[in-house]
Amino acid sequence: xKSCNVLLVSPGFPTxxxxxxxxxxxVVGARHPQIPLxxxxxxxxxxxxxxxxxxxxxxxxxxxxxLDWADLVMTGGMNVQRADCLRVIELAQARGKPVVxxxxxxxxxxxTYMHADFQVxxxxxxxxxxxxxxxxxxxxxxxxxxxxxxVDISRTPVPRFDLVQRRDYLHYSVQFSRGCPFTCExxxxxxxxxxxxxxxxxxxxxxxxxRLYDAGYRGHVDFVDDNFIGNKKAVKAxxxxxxxxxxxxxxxxxxxxxxxxxxxxxxxLLQSMREANFGAVFVGIESxxxxxxxxxxxxxxxxxxxxxxxxxxxxxxxxxxxxxxxxFDSERSEIASxxxxxxxxxxxxxxxxxxxxxxxxxxxxxxxEREGRLFPWxxxxxxxxxxxxxQCTLGLNFETQxxxxxxxxDYKQVIDAIYRPQSYFDRVRHLAAxxxxxxxxxxASETLARWHLxxxxxxxxxxLVRLLWGxxxxxxxxxxxxxxxxxxxxxxxxxLLHVVGMLAAMYLHxxxxxRTVSATTARQIADIDNGMWRSxxxxxxxxxxxxxxx
Length: 550
Ligand code: B12
Ligand code: SF4
Fold this sequence. Notes:
Blueprint: E1 5-10, H1 22-28, H2 37-45, E2 51-56, H3 64-69, E3 72-75, H4 82-94, E4 99-101, H5 104-108, E5 118-121, H6 128-136, E6 142-145, E7 172-174, E8 177-178, H7 189-193, E9 198-199, H8 202-214, E10 219-223, H9 232-248, E11 253-258, H10 267-275, E12 278-286, H11 290-295, H12 306-315, E13 319-326, H13 335-346, E14 351-355, H14 363-370, H15 378-387, H16 391-394, H17 404-418, H18 421-434, H19 443-452, H20 458-473, H21 476-492, H22 497-529, H23 545-549
Helix pairs in contact: 1-20, 1-22, 9-10, 12-13, 13-17, 17-22, 18-21, 18-22, 20-21, 20-22, 21-22
Bound molecules: cobalamin and iron/sulfur cluster.
Cobalamin binds at residues 13, 17, 19-20, 33-34, 36-39, 41-42, 74-76, 78-80, 100-105, 108, 120, 123-125, 173, 175, 178, 188-189, 192-193, 224, 226, 352, 359, 390-391.
C-alpha cells in the first residue's frame, strides 16, 4: 500500500466553558484537560504504512507547514468544537488538502459539514476500511455511515497514545465500554452509541493500560465510558483483573469515570471499584424533583433520597461530581431552592449545573419540534459565535413551559449559591470529613504522607505555590478559602491533601466561570425585562407517519 501523511487536527473548544478548566490546568502546567481520544483511536485504525501526526488546537497552533506536510487532513469532534472544526476544514482546503471529517457532531448533523471532502458518520471502526480502499482507489469525495451500535469494540486497537504530548493534558483517557441502557429524553449518547453497552475484552483493555504504563505514565486515568456500570456483568469481570494488574505494579494509576446513580445500590461493586483505585465518579443527577425525573425518563434517580445515595458512594471512597439541569417542563417554582439544598445536603463540590439544551438527534429535540417549541439550531450556533460557551450559557433553545425569565432567574440563583467561595469550600470540607483515605491505594497517597510531615517533594511544593498564586488571582475570598482548606487538611486529614488540593484547583476555574455565567444570565433576564427578547420559534413540523401510528 502507498504511504500517506495524515494530519489529525483536534478542533479548539471555546474557552469560557465549564469543562475548560484553564486555571486548573495552569496550576499543574497543563494546557487542556483531556486528550482527543476519538482522533487517536482513528489514527490506530489507519494502515500501518501511513504516517500520522496530531495537532490539537487546544494546545498548539496549526501552521501552514503542518498542512503542507499532509496528504490528508482528518478532523472532527463534538458540537461545541463545530466553529473551529469548520475553520480547520477551510484552512486545509485553502492549501489544497482533502479533509475527512468525523465524530459525534458530524454524526448528529452531517449537513453542516457537506463541504468536507469525506464525511464519516458514526464510529470509525465500521467504515475505515472502506474509506482507505476508496482513498487508495483515487476517490476524493464520499460519505461513509456506520449503523448505530454495529461496531464490535472488542476489536478496536489500542489508541495511538504516542501521538499526544503528555505534559499538555491534565490526564489520559481510556474507554472500556460504549452505550448506556437507560432512556433519558434529553440524552444523545443513546442515539449515537446505542442502548446496549458494548465492551472491550479484559485482556484488550489491560493492554491499553499497559501501553500507558510502559510509556512511563503514572497518575490519573479517566474512563470516558458513557455509563461505566451500563453492563454490570462485564464490569464485575473487569474489576478483579484490573485490581490485580494495579496491585502487581504498585497502583500506578487512579481512576475516574461516569456512572448512573444506581451505582450507590451495589455495595460490592463500589468496593471493587475502590479496590481497583477509583477515586471519583461523575453522576447525572439532573434534578431533585421526582416528577421531573419521571417526565424526562430518568427513573433510575427516583425511588431514593439522592443525598443518601451520594453519601453511600462517598463512604466507599469515591467522591461524586454531578450534573444538574434547570429548564425541564415539569419544574416548579421551588426548583432553585430544591436544587441548592440537594447539592448542599449531598456535599458535592463540583456540579455542572446547566440549562436544558435540546441537542439535535435526541428524543427531546424531536418532541419539541413536534410541539412547535424548538428554536432553529442557528440560535445556539449564532450565540455561541457571540459568547462562546456551553450549556451553561447557550441552553434553553426552545420555548420553555414556565416563563423564560423565571427559569433563567432560578438558574442564576442556583449558580450564585453553589459557587460562592464559602459554599463551595464548605462542601469540600464536609466531603473531606467523610471520605476515607484517598486515593485508596498507591503512589499518590505515599507522596501525600510526605506532605503530612511537611517534607514536601519539589513537585508538591511547586503545585502548592502555584495553587496559592492562582487563588490570589481569583480574588481575596478565594485566597482566604483556599488557604483555610489547605490548613484544615494539613492539620486534620493530611491523607486527603491531594483531593482537597485538586478540588481547590478546580475552583480556580469554576468560581470565576460561575460569575461569568451569572452575568450572562443576568443580561438575558434584562433583555426580557427590556422587551429585547424574541423567541425564534420554528413553525410546527409536519407529523410523520410513525408519530401518527404511535
Ligand atoms: C469524555 C467526554 C467529554 C470530556 C472531554 C472530551 C475531550 N475530548 O476533551 C468532557 C467531560 C470535558 C466533555 C464535555 C462536554 N461534552 Co462530551 N463527551 C465525552 C464522552 C463521554 C467521551 C468522548 C470520548 O473520548 N469518546 C471515545 C472516542 C473513542 O469516541 P468518539 O470520540 O465518538 O470517536 C469515535 C467516532 O465518533 C469516530 N470519530 C471521532 N472523531 C473522528 C474523526 C474522524 C476524521 C473520523 C473519520 C472519525 C471520528 O471514530 C471514533 C472511533 O469510533 C462523549 C460520549 C462518547 N461516548 O464519546 C461525550 C460527548 C462527546 N460530549 C458531548 C457534549 C455535548 C459535551 C458538552 C458540550 C456538554 C456535556 N455533556 O457536558 C461538554 C462541552 C465541553 C467543553 N469544553 O465545552 C456530546 C457531543 C454531542 C455532539 N453531537 O456533538 C457527547 C457525544 C455525549 C454527551 N452528551 O456528553 N465531554
Ligand atoms: S443515564 Fe446518562 S448516558 Fe444513560 S441515557 Fe441517561 S443521560 Fe444518557
